[in-house]
Amino acid sequence: MKNKKTDTTAGRPKNNKPGSLPYVWNRIRKRPLAMTGLIFILVIFILSFISPYILKYGWETIEMKARYQTPSFEHWLGTDELGRDELARILYGAKYTISIGFISTGVSAILGIIIGAIAGYFGGKIDNFIMRCLDVFQAFPGILLAIAISAVLGPGFTKVIIAMGISGLAGYARMMRANILSIRSSEYVEAATSINCTTGRIIMRHIIPNAISPLIVQMAMGIASAGLQASALSFLGFGVQAPTPEWGSMLSSARSFIRDYPHMCVIPGIFIMLTVLSFNLVGDAIRDALDPKLRD
Amino acid sequence: MSNTDKKGYLSVQDLVVEYRSGGETVQAVNHISFDLPSGRSLGLVGETGAGKTTTAKSIMRILPDHATQKVEGVIEYDGKDILKLSEAEMQKVRGGKISMIFQDPMTALNPVKTVGEQIAEGLKVHQGLDKVKAREKAIEMLNTVGISQDRVDEYPHQFSGGMKQRVVIAIALACNPELIIADEPTTALDVTIQAQVLELIKKLQEERGTSMILITHDLGVVAQICDDVAIVYAGEIVERGTLEEIYDHPMHPYTEGLFGAIPELSKDVHRLSPVPGLPPDPTSLPQGCYFAPRCPYATDACREKHFALEKVSGSHYVRCIKKEQEG
Amino acid sequence: MALFEVEHLKKYFPTGRGMVHAVDDVTFSIEEGTTMGLVGESGCGKSTLGRTMIHLLESTDGVIRFKGEDITHPDKKKLRQLREDMQIIFQDPYSSLNPRMTIQDTIMEPLKLSGRFAKEQLEEECIKLMDLAGIEKRFRDSYPHELDGGRRQRVGIARAIALMPKFIVCDEPVSALDVSIQAQILNLLMDLQEEYKLTYVFITHDLSVVRHISTHICVMYLGQMVETCPTQELFDYPLHPYTKALLSAIPSTDIHNKSQRIQLKGEITSPINPKPGCRFAQRCPYATEKCSEPLTLSEVRPGHFVSCCHVREINGL
């Protein structure tokens, strides 16, 4: 097997480095489920911006005559308690749910990576201090921490992102620290020292690239749960506030009508579920694509 | 052959094992045949990926189901074909009549059970002993492998590598198996500890008349404890015979290469003469002799025709055209 | 003059359970163009010693000399210069290469860092090195996981010899490889030594390998140096009881002259806060109370140093 392995890959075109973007893209492209997920997210996200210009009804147009309508030709996904078009609201709200997921995961990951890298690289007292602080963070369930922070900061789009960013960073920091610790003692870092690599070069070229790739996977999976969490926060009233149609808050305000007009709850629920599922599928594919041992 | 002759007699005929890996079919074992009379020990020697462990796992029937595509041939033990036994019957054989010693004692033991419990477990299952009796027998086994009985209630992490391997051996021997399959039992150990463990295996085997298959890449280890040797290359036996036949008159070029690659203590050689190149890819084996691409004597005939294992003398068999012609 | 000398070298590590005396008072010298084999079982401190010698680890005490010059505590500039002269080849060809760098990048890195070569020369030099180490050109843009163990080890060797160092520590370079590949790598190392007058420290637990490649041998046990002398001398007249046991434990392929085994009791412990005296005493068949006194190294035969207080009685000298 070894022979073949080396022979078939030797003539690989440049720019197809495992872990590089074109390489990962090439591998994701071959997975139909992941591509379906990716396309779903992109379509929803793009529609979210152009929907006000193409739909007949605006997301805040109140039409008291047409309240509580079930899906019909006029209103594809029905209307809510104020007669607003559900489709317009869902599409308009998508950008909040998706971007909260993205940005808050990005905030968590960046803060986590920096903190974890500091702890892992410097070690000793700094490491100890950082890790104990993170222990305190992790003593709370993530959603509870996010609720607590939102309660302090108050509701709103940016504030939700800050709350979720902070509540999620501990996981990333821990993972980054563990990766750095194991890579720092690896033989290739020792080899780099022995050929006179400077500390900066060792960190940038040998440690960081190898420490970060498992985190990218974590992030891809994290976006899904952050989106879900954002909806949960809005549902509880801490997130994006009415009348902005974030999916969680739509769900929240529809819950009083669940017996008589279940479609008002079911529709945002389905969209939350489909989006989370799509992110998970893409995350799965990224994980496999980044693992150099799984070949296609 | 009468039934009494077959007692403890292992006969592997034309064993073929294929499995899937990364969408390709790996020909792991290609028509391996050998016989192991009761009380003898056979060394299966070869490099990584030669199919030694797969052969052993086929005898134990512990190949991973999901990946294994094809297991063909006959593995006859005690007059029964192991490959045709039901899973329930097989469980009686496994651990009872045939037991296996794994390479890595660190992963072969359960970390959350005491060594005493782990030895007793098999006794309860296979010999129906009650708790007290099983514990007594476990202590006896620990003594047999040279571990003080005070340690029966300790956990694996409290033992050193060599001691763990002794525990693994104690587990394997607890039910008085008729056949032991030892897969690189000493590779993970230091030389002085290896010497202790080999001595122990040999002693126990002689005392109990157990048959053994020893899987290893180390010709030195084989020389210490085996009666017969089979050299495995690319999933097939290329040479087979008694220890003396193989070590005194290695005939297959690969066997020669293996001997040439070891720096021998008693001889002064300035340069080693290793086999050049690498073993063939088991997903696409060469057409003729599998060894031909690396063989210094290879001719066109070798690259075209695949040879059978031919008898040279006594119980010495070789798979090579060169020997056929020489006579 | 010896190329490399260590005198009373010590390396201690603090751990939660006490101070580990990984290398305790080791003294020997290595001539240019020769190979010193460091032999011992796992945990005897041989790898730590090798790394301490080339300043991948800082020594706790003792003196290190290279070309007659004291290099125990070099300043930054000196250390950079020394590292170009002293290299290391690692045991595990899987973990010693950065999985995200191509073979060419890995081999070119020391060349780039040295500043000796112009950009245009780098690739040419890299191909030369790959050729020297026996790696086919087509693997230039491959990644480590696409290569087999033997080829990876060749990449490690190419990286180590890139700047033509004088002194290389080989830390079990063949123990992770199959026998036939092992022999190929040993031959490569010996060819390179002959051609470039390299000096090796060859760390291994395999005595047959060390006999093949070394001119001198130093046997270690739990951080202590047990015996050191020229290779032939060690195999002809092993004097220390541990060396004798070690030699007799090697499984030989010579099936007709089975030598008598010396069986050792017990196993190696770890050298945490050890008591003074010989650490082998608890497994030694000749141990007496005298063995708990501090060890001294004595020249028992010309060029043959042993640290055992009973060495003369045991061997009838």
Biggest sheet: strand arrangement of chain C: 6-7-8-3-9-10-12-11
**Number of beta strands of chain A:** 0
N-to-C terminal Cα separation of chain A, in Å? 15 Å
Structural class label of chain A = mainly alpha
What's the overall geometry of chain C? globular
Question: Rg of chain A to the nearest angstrom?
Answer: 23 Å
Largest sheet of chain A: none
- Based on the structure, what is the oligomeric state of the protein chains? heterotrimer
Distance between the termini of chain C: 31 Å
Most extensive protein-chain contact, per-chain counts: B-C, 44 and 40 residues
* Mean model confidence by pLDDT of chain A: 83
Structural class, from secondary structure content of chain C?
alpha/beta
Mean pLDDT of chain C: 90
Low-confidence stretches of chain A: 1-14
Topology order of chain A in helix (H) and strand (E) letters? HHHHHHHHHHH
Report low-confidence residues of chain C grouped into runs of 5 or more.
none
Helix content of chain A: over 70%
Descriptive labels:
heterotrimer, B: 327 residues, alpha/beta, eight-stranded mixed sheet, C: alpha/beta, four-stranded antiparallel sheet, 10 helices, globular
Explain the layout of strands and helices.
The complex is a heterotrimer of chains A (296), B (327) and C (317).
Chain A: H1 2-10, H2 21-29, H3 32-54, H4 86-122, H5 124-139, H6 142-153, H7 157-184, H8 187-194, H9 199-235, H10 247-254, H11 263-290
Chain B: E1 10-21, E2 24-36, E3 41-45, H1 52-60, E4 68-77, E5 80-81, H2 87-93, E6 98-101, H3 105-108, H4 115-127, H5 131-144, H6 161-173, E7 179-183, H7 191-208, E8 211-216, H8 219-225, E9 228-233, E10 236-242, H9 243-248, H10 253-261, H11 300-304, E11 310-313, E12 316-318, H12 321-326
Parallel strand pairs in B: 3-8, 3-9, 6-7, 7-8
Antiparallel strand pairs in B: 1-2, 1-4, 4-5, 9-10, 10-12, 11-12
Chain C: E1 4-15, E2 18-30, E3 35-39, H1 46-53, E4 61-66, E5 69-70, H2 76-85, E6 86-89, H3 103-114, H4 119-133, H5 149-161, E7 167-171, H6 179-196, E8 199-204, H7 207-213, E9 216-221, E10 224-230, H8 231-236, H9 241-249, E11 298-301, E12 304-306, H10 311-315
Parallel strand pairs in C: 3-8, 3-9, 6-7, 7-8
Antiparallel strand pairs in C: 1-2, 1-4, 4-5, 9-10, 10-12, 11-12
